[in-house]
Design goal:
The structure is a homodimer.
Chain A lengths: L17 H7 L8 E2 L16 H5 L4 H15 L7 E4 L6 H5 L6 E5 L5 H8 L3 E5 L10 E5 L11 H13 L3 E5 L21 E6 L12 E5 L1 H11 L6 H11 L2 H24 L6 E3 L2 E5 L3 H10 L2 E2 L1 E2 L6 E4 L5 H28 L1
Parallel strand pairs in A: 1-11, 3-4, 3-5, 5-6, 6-7
Antiparallel strand pairs in A: 2-8, 7-8, 9-10, 10-13, 12-13
Helix pairs in contact in A: 3-8
């Protein structure tokens, strides 16, 4: 038996765990205000699931219908370009296995699961902050818009990069997990037909239904068939099929939600700025903060039951999702006021001692 | 890019599709009585899911708790032996990738996805009806109890086989999809510690919740870590976690259900026999029929809205699940009476013409 890279494969924290929050801040007031993910706090309206969505095997016809709706909503040319999956996470090693072990370059810093999955598949994987360098890889990865800083690469540049890689038999992976709230004209979902491109789309983030586990690969029909074969029949659970069909087809809800999230993201920026915290980027689903005292801000808010996302490997960065409820906004404001007061006192003490 | 075996990878029928039934028998009365799967028609009692099971990312702690309950119920030595997954189907290529491409022998005839997954992973895969031959493989596969004929291999024989394979660095895969209603003392879940064995356990069949997509690999902690790494975080959806925790821990329901299913399987055998159809094996969740006129029986029942499982590659075999409802039993009996009458007429015509 072979165990390619089990030593490197332990799964790190990605936010969203209240159990972890309670361990870090055992005295914090409940309920927690979880701002540690980029998941929409305003979920698509919940509805009663038909019992058969739990009891029966998912009908292949429903999965095909979901691919059709996804193709239309994401702007892919054909349902044959769409691979429905139980979340994009489980697709990562399958996508990285499409290329023989080689050199993987990831435009970073970004979501760390890409590197973990690439290494798991036997690749030599590294992050680079230089877009031009990606063209030297066998397999290049761009998260677009990027998580956590919201950086956007134009479709034009990505299509050019894909053409260079394709000529050498390489592959471009574009993770569009947050493209629902991004500049959608930069999506590559309509450009996958020639091959050499795999786009990943998440359902759970924008629709606020991360527990359902639903995501898609968008790729040439040849690649899509290969990924479908790896997943096998019944890859998507009944509840995810029901919600996926209804929510992905509901363009009116999607448009209204985009407006609402943009307004709330602006409100969050203003609130943070009022207490001296500048936002450096992000998307409507999360805001990116970079400051030397980020670890202290994480702690002050954590002690007050408000969980931000911190990064073990980049201590001066934080990511903040949207509070979602009126109570959440108020508790965030109270916590930020406490932070600002501590900050001011510290500045005064620094002044006195000088 | 590489496409190892996409040509061989199309997914065939496995029963359970009413859309397929309607295409085959467009004039059949609705609703369909679906006997084409081995899924328990008496599902674990449905309950209201907490909204957070849909909206939030699954808590890693819940997944660990589910592994604990599964270890206890399946008789594994430790939760570290358990890999929770969105169904066992998606695990097959991952399990077959644990061994370098080599010779895979599958004790057959059996569930055809094993061969498809093995070929997809680059193996040279074949079915054999001779148990002793399995010892010559790099990777051997036994479905226990077998689908569709219910054949059982003793734990003792399997442990011996695993030891032979292990000495050569080989692997034994035991698919215990129907072991919940099998002779559980023959399960290998408690024997995986030394390595060289992967057991697969299905949740959806016995608990009648196939739409949720939940299954487990049971293996040494080393193999389990490797499989966990391939699946990545949040592999099991929130609804599957909720039902898995409750149902797998409910030993009282499980015991009562085993008794009920055994009684209903006996009732089905008697009903079939009353109309001249002998049952040749199976489990409490499905019965196996082998007769030269199987295709005709499939058609006569299909035209009456009762779907059996037929097998493209073995035309003289059928599999019949349990009807579940009083209406289902009655419609099955009416259809069988029609079958018997046609049969008698045909026999009489044969007598007259002689």
């Amino acid at each position: 038996m072979r165990f390619p890279a089990a030593g490197n494969s332990a799964i790190p924290d990605h936010g969203g765990s209240l159990a972890r929050a309670r361990t870090l801040f055992p005295h914090a007031p409940e309920p927690w205000i979880d701002l540690s993910t980029g998941i929409n706090p305003h979920s698509y309206p919940l509805f009663d699931l038909p019992a058969t969505s739990l009891t029966r095997l998912p009908e292949p016809g429903l999965t095909r219908a979901l691919a059709g709706v996804a193709a239309s909503t994401y702007g892919a040319q054909s349902p044959g370009n769409i691979v429905p999956a139980p979340g994009t996470q489980i697709l990562l090693p399958r996508v990285y296995s499409l290329a023989a072990p080689g050199k993987v370059l990831i435009l970073g810093p970004t979501y760390s699961e890409h590197r973990r999955a690439a290494v798991l598949c036997g690749h030599d994987a590294a992050e680079t902050s230089d877009f031009e360098t990606l063209a030297t890889a066998d397999l290049a990865v761009v998260v677009n818009p990027n998580n956590p800083d919201g950086r956007i690469v134009s479709r034009e540049k990505l299509v050019d990069l894909a053409a260079i890689l394709r000529r050498r038999g390489g592959l471009l992976v574009v993770d569009e997990a947050f493209m629902d709230v991004g500049p959608r004209q930069e999506s590559l979902c309509g450009d996958v037909g020639e091959g050499g491109i795999v786009v990943l789309r998440s359902f759970g983030k924008f629709f606020g239904l991360a527990g359902l586990r639903l995501g898609f690969a968008v790729a040439s029909e040849e690649i899509a068939r290969q990924l479908d074969a790896e997943l096998g029949p019944w890859a998507v659970a009944g509840p995810a099929l029901e919600y996926g069909l209804r929510a992905l087809g509901d363009l009116q809800w999607q448009d209204a939600m985009r407006g609402r999230l943009a307004a709330e993201a602006a409100q969050l920026d203003q609130l943070l700025l009022r207490y001296g915290i500048a936002v450096h980027g992000g998307t409507s689903l999360f805001r990116h903060i970079a400051r030397p005292d980020a670890a202290r801000l994480f702690e002050v808010l954590g002690e007050r039951g408000i969980l931000l996302r911190n990064f073990a490997e980049r201590r001066d960065e934080l990511r903040a999702g949207l509070p979602g409820s009126e109570a959440g906004w108020q508790r965030l404001e109270t916590a930020l006021a406490a932070w600002a007061m501590q900050h001011e006192r510290a500045a005064m003490r620094a002044g006195v001692s000088r």
